[in-house]
Each structure stands twice: as structure tokens, then as C-alpha cells.
Design goal:
The complex is a heterodimer of chains A (110) and B (112).
Chain A: E1 3-7, E2 10-14, E3 19-26, E4 30-38, E5 45-50, E6 56-59, E7 62-66, E8 70-75, E9 84-92, E10 95-100, E11 104-109
Chain B: E1 5-7, E2 10-13, E3 19-24, E4 31-38, E5 42-50, E6 53-57, E7 64-68, E8 74-78, E9 87-94, E10 102-103, E11 107-111
Parallel strand pairs in B: 2-11
Antiparallel strand pairs in B: 1-3, 3-8, 4-5, 4-9, 5-6, 7-8, 9-10, 9-11
Classes of the chains: A mainly beta (110), B mainly beta (112).
């Protein structure tokens, strides 16, 4: 059974204070690892797909990286508008259905 | 805007009742997924349809059922509702079997 664990559960940062969110996973043959952003009362919004260890993707202040056991979402010089819950999901070779972690709730204070 | 439309946005009903949630996927997407999100469980996969056929089932209760129609819209039927069914129900669509899902804004169900 695919498992995804995200840490920390919640993170408070000051504007401009860079940090990283962690996503540890256990799957049988990784097909893809996905990061989503979810704003309160909204549906998750797709951010990145990573397919293999060593791969990196960037979008504005966000950078996602992947190893064989975990992924990191690095947030550089965050702004208050980056406040959201960030979800990680994995898709394994045994199932095409993405399994989601519980997310990290990020609050960036001005 | 993801292109996925869900109705209704909010629904309040009583225990024992039945409700239907509706989803229209992005134009061209053949796959529809239903997820339930509650505070203590996170996003839980319920069921997936591809071009009208059921493809995968998750932890969907027997009281719940779904279908995808020829025009590709999908409905999730929840019956004999219990207090614990209160949650956000999300529909997502994708073009195939990829993990890049496009979510609607959800239907918030409150069972009193």
C-alpha cells in the first residue's frame, strides 16, 4: 500500500524567511510524485510532477526536488500570498490512483 | 479556474437522507475521480471512472455510489447519511492515467 507522510503539519514563517516542506513516501515502483497547493475552501491546484530521483522543478518562489525516499518543496523568500496547504501525492506502478499526504499548512506573516 | 465544475457548493441535510453531487470534468478529459476530504482523514480516494466505465474503487462505503454518463459528467450519490459523512467532496478530472489531476472547488456536505 502506498504511503505518504508530510512534515511538518504546520509551518509559520515571516515574509522572506525561506524554508522547506518534506514529503516522505513508500511506494511499489514510483510512477510520479505530485505537489499541489490548496487554498481554504478550494480544490487542490496542481503545481509540479517529478518522475525520478534527482529531478527538480521550479515555479516562481517554489522549487521541488526528489530523492528515492522523499521530496522537498523549497520556498524561497516567501510572501503572504504563498500561505496555503501544500499537498504531496504519489502514483505507483501498481495503481494509477494518486495517494495524497495530509498536507503542510503554511502561513507566511507580513 | 481548473475547468472542473461541481454542484452544489454547499449542502445541508439530515441524517438518513440521500443527496446527489454533480461534476462536469474539463473539456476533453475522460477520467473522473471522486475524493472525500475531512479534517482528520485528509484526501481519501473514493472512486474513478474512465469514459463511462468504473476503473478503480477506494474506500467507498456501500451507501455511496457513482456513475459517469455518456456526456462524461459524473454524479456521486450518498444515501442513508450519517453525521460522519460531513466532509468536502471533490471531483477531479484528467486526460488519462496520469497523476496530474484538476480539481473542482468541491461540495461541502453538512449532515445534521
Amino acid at each position: 500500500e502506498d504511503q505518504v507522510t508530510q512534515s511538518p503539519e504546520a509551518l509559520r514563517l515571516q515574509e522572506g524567511e525561506s524554508s522547506s516542506l518534506n514529503c516522505s513516501y513508500t511506494v511499489s515502483g514510483l510512477r510520479g510524485l505530485f505537489w499541489y497547493r490548496q487554498d481554504p475552501g478550494k480544490g487542490p491546484e496542481f503545481l509540479f510532477t517529478l518522475y525520478s530521483a534527482g529531478e527538480e522543478k521550479e515555479k516562481e518562489r517554489l522549487k521541488a526536488t526528489l530523492t528515492k525516499k522523499e521530496s522537498f518543496l523549497h520556498i524561497t523568500a516567501p510572501k503572504p500570498e504563498d500561505s496555503a496547504t501544500y499537498l504531496c501525492a504519489v502514483q505507483s506502478g501498481g495503481s494509477y490512483i494518486p495517494t495524497f499526504g495530509r498536507g503542510t499548512s503554511l502561513i507566511v506573516h507580513p | 479556474d481548473s475547468g472542473v465544475t461541481q454542484t452544489p457548493k454547499h449542502l445541508i441535510t439530515a441524517t438518513g437522507q440521500r443527496v446527489t453531487l454533480r461534476c462536469s470534468p474539463r473539456s476533453g478529459d475522460l477520467s473522473v475521480y471522486w475524493y472525500q476530504q475531512s479534517l482528520d482523514q485528509g484526501l481519501q480516494f473514493l472512486i474513478q471512472y474512465y469514459n463511462g466505465e468504473e476503473r478503480a474503487k477506494g474506500n467507498i462505503l456501500e451507501r455511496f455510489s457513482a456513475q459517469q454518463f455518456p456526456d462524461l459528467h459524473s454524479e456521486l450519490n450518498l444515501s442513508s447519511l450519517e453525521l460522519g459523512d460531513s466532509a468536502l467532496y471533490f471531483c477531479a478530472s484528467s486526460g488519462g492515467t496520469g497523476g496530474e489531476l484538476f480539481f473542482g472547488e468541491g461540495s461541502r456536505l453538512t449532515v445534521l
